[in-house]
Amino acid sequence: MTSDRLDLVSKLYQPSGWPRILEVASGQRSTAPLVVDLDPTTFCDLACPECISGKLLNQGRFTPERLAELAGELVEMKVRGVVLIGGGEPLAHRGTRQVLRTLGEAGIAIGVVTNGTMIPQNLKELARYASWVRVSMDSGSADTYGVFRPDRKGRSVFDKVIANMRLLAAEKRGALGYSFLIMSRLQPDGTTVSNHHEVLQAARLAKDIGCDYFESKAMFDDGHHVIQMPEETLASVVEQLHEAEKLADDGFEIIDSSTLTTLRNRVGPVQPKEYHSCPVAELRTLITPSGVYVCSYHRGNPLAKIGDAVTEKLPDIWATADRGIVDPSRDCRFHCARHRSNLELHKIGAGAATEEPVEDYDPFI
């Protein structure tokens, strides 16, 4: 099922962001990003072996005071949407609740990507202010969860997270999502362990919990290239998703991520790009304790770092940063979810816009 949640090109044509879209499409520097990914901390209470940010964990955090200041600076810059994400687990920082309050009271849309273990401590703020909360589950059973998402003592906290999701489902104003990253691991004995057989089981559980959507995704390697699946695995996933579609109704949606769609369309791991500048880098950015980066695909990459939010104010960073330091044709040959957005921005700049602004519905471009 195609969802507006993932139709990033159409989101460019929303009226409230259109002035900045035109600014960027015409080759100008933007006055501020429209959307910011914010890592409050690099700490995580789980120890997922396949974590793509594993090498960046436990390498710093913002103080609660600085995190509160950052929230105020995002309001000052008139950012439209903020995604609390990470590196680490965003709800693990005791200052995150204040960030949720500050942004929410200012009318900024908030997304949260979490492992779900700390929902109860943040329940009031998540329920009231979050536009959406997506919980990374990657399983449909406690045993498989323990294999791919163990805690630091090697235990499965699956039942705890499911209970936490039920708490949020009962209180939330925004959407709640169940995220399933399809994974496999080669064991030392030469056998392979996978979670792909639990896609349908997890989708059924997501609906039972009261989630608004179930999203399946393909794995990335360390270079953000989509990892190819064996034909039989992909066939199994496609069959399960086809069956899961029967669960969809007005309150529950089945979503294929762009990464999984590339596999279904037999697209390889490399996504060539013929343009040398990234207009989206003028509209989105990533803020972490280790630095401010051009985008989340380049988290931790010193060649894509444009500032230090621990010691510098965000408006000052944005005013002086060279956001053209990344050349997509050279530096972004992985699958980028916003490749089509960049192509569309180039069209808009050339006077060949494909849509007309109609109404605001989702600021997360």
Highlighted features:
alpha/beta, TIM Barrel, rSAM_sf, 13 helices, 12 strands, 10-stranded mixed sheet, catalytic activity, 365 residues
How is this structure best described in words?
GO terms for molecular function: catalytic activity; iron-sulfur cluster binding; metal ion binding. InterPro entries: Aldolase_TIM (IPR013785), Radical_SAM_PqqE_MftC-like (IPR050377), rSAM (IPR007197), rSAM_sf (IPR058240). It holds the Pfam family Radical_SAM. This is Radical SAM protein. With 365 residues, the protein is an alpha/beta fold. It is 32% helix and 15% strand. The chain has 13 helices and twelve strands. It has a ten-stranded mixed beta sheet with strand order 9-8-5-4-3-2-1-10-11-12. Strands 6-7 form a two-stranded antiparallel ribbon. A hairpin with a 2-residue loop joins strand 10 and strand 11. The relative contact order is 0.16. The mean pLDDT is 93.
Number of contiguous helices: 13
Assign a percent range to the helix content: 25-40%
Number of domains: 1
CATH architecture: Alpha-Beta Barrel
Q: At the fourth CATH level, what is the homologous superfamily? A: Aldolase class I
Number of strands: 12
Cα-based radius of gyration, to the nearest Å: 20 Å
Largest sheet, in brief, is: 10 strands, mixed
Strand/helix succession: HHEHEHEHEHHEEEHEHEHEEEHHH
Q: Report the principal-axis shape.
A: globular
Top-tier CATH class: Alpha Beta
Looking at CATH, which topology would you report?
A: TIM Barrel
Strand content: 5-15%
Structural class: alpha/beta
Distance between the termini: 19 Å
Q: Kindly report the average pLDDT value.
A: 93
Strand order of the largest sheet: 9-8-5-4-3-2-1-10-11-12
User: Would you identify the regions where 5 or more consecutive residues have pLDDT less than 50?
Assistant: none
